[in-house]
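At this stage, I wrote out one protein, both as residues and as discrete backbone shape codes, and that material follows here.
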Amino acid sequence: MAKILRGKHRPDFTPYVDCGDGVVIINADKIEVTGMKEARKIYRSYTGFIGGLREIPYRTMKARHPDYILMRAIKGMMPKTRLGGQQIKKLRIYAGPEHSLRAQTPQAVNI
């Protein structure tokens, strides 16, 4: 997904230009992980207050926000620049099979 967002699949790829395509991911709730990641992986966030470290296990995060799991994974593969932030805005993730982007006629790609 990061490769398509960045535009590396195109012959006219330029590293400093946003020439990537938009990506729509559906059925994010069907994500699978390998090994012991389901039991051991923890998502951490800090509120900014003293003792404000929040830890959410993978199983809870998958039940609550399955789209966040994919968003965080793909965002980690993108460049940490203004261009990367601009490219990550073209990513749309939906937990179920329904999405509201029918007017753009997205092409289905099985990866």
